[in-house]
Structure formats: C-alpha cells, structure tokens
C-alpha cells in the first residue's frame, strides 16, 4: 500500500495510467432489536487498463516496525464536516454536436445488428441454430481483442452514503488519488443518489 496524506492505494495501481474510480454504498444490516443502529459504509475500487512496464518507481514509504501484539487498535477518524447551504440541482450539461452524431451512428449500428439477430431467429424455429442474444453478440465479436483491467480496492469510508459529509469525503479522496497518480483528470463513477449530492450547487 502507498500512503499520501489520507489516500491509500494498492501497489497494483500504477501512476500515469488513466484511472476510473467507482464508489458505492454498502450496508451491513446487523440484527438489532429495533432494526436501528446498523452500520453503513462506502466502498471504492480503482480500475486501470493492464499494461506491461517499465513501471515508474513509487516514492519511498515509511518504515513500519513489527509489534508483537495480538490486537489491533483502530483509530476512528472524523470526517471533515460539509456545511450545506440552500442548493439547487445540477444544471443541464451542454453536449457537443459531434458527440450526439457519434452516439446516433453507434445506436444505428447496434440496431441493425439486433435486427439481423431477430430475423435470423425467425428461421427454422423448430431446429434453432442461432444462439440467444448474448451468444450471438459474443460470436459476432469474438475477433475483437479484449484488454484485461487491473482492479484495486480502496479503503472503506465508514460513514453513511446519504450524508453530504461522506460525499464530500469521496470527492476529496478521489482528488488525492488523482494527485498521487500524477494525472490531470480522473473519472469518478457513482450511483444516482451519490451523484445528485456531489453536483449540487449553492443558490
């Protein structure tokens, strides 16, 4: 693991490589008498395309001496409080016309491909040789090269995902990871509930 302030990265995640971060909530629904008091956390992963060296050297990590102890002391770290003001939802994002045209062309290709599959499935229904939709797409794309990705697990944020403080921590952790990997930009993936809080703007 590599330490950078409060960001921790697995050694499998390399610097200077385009990275996707994905965050999602995970609820540990422990059995309690009232149903309350269960723990809520946010888990994250880092995804990179696998490539073969040379790998840039990582900065030297501090030495950790071994201790002959059977228990581990966990230090609970309070998250920085996010002071929310009156907010409005995210505004519509402008879309480049070329991106719209590219998406329409891709949709047309996929639509034609699905039409071919539907028509092919109509023939010899009593002795069907055309595979199902998934199998059909696998067979028609079996010549395309598939690159393997590297997935690294990030430290859990021990706080409920519904809190703005937690969302603020996710954004800060993502930015720290971006800086440690020496990247200009980084992709952060969230579910809709987290995203809505992350892009809220003050009035």
TrEMBL record:
PANTHER family: BHLH DOMAIN-CONTAINING PROTEIN, CXC DOMAIN-CONTAINING PROTEIN-RELATED
Protein name as catalogued: Uncharacterized protein
């Amino acid at each position: 693991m590599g330490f950078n302030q409060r960001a921790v990265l697995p050694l499998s995640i390399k610097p200077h490589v385009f990275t996707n971060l994905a965050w999602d909530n995970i609820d540990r629904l422990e059995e309690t008498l009232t149903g309350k008091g269960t723990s809520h956390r946010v888990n994250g992963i880092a995804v990179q395309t696998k490539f073969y060296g040379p790998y840039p050297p990582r900065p030297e990590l501090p030495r950790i001496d071994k201790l002959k102890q059977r228990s581990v002391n966990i230090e609970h770290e309070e998250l920085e409080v996010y002071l929310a003001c009156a907010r409005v939802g995210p505004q519509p994002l402008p879309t480049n016309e070329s991106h719209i045209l590219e998406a329409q062309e891709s949709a047309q290709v996929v639509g034609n491909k699905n039409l071919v599959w539907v028509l092919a499935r109509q023939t010899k229904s009593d002795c069907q040789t055309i595979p199902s939709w998934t199998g059909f797409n696998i067979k028609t794309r079996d010549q395309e090269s598939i690159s393997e990705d590297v997935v690294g697990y990030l430290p859990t944020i021990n706080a409920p995902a519904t809190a703005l403080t937690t969302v603020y921590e996710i954004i800060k952790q993502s930015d720290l990871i971006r800086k440690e990997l020496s990247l200009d930009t980084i992709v952060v993936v969230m579910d809709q509930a987290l995203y809505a809080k992350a892009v809220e703007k003050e009035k």
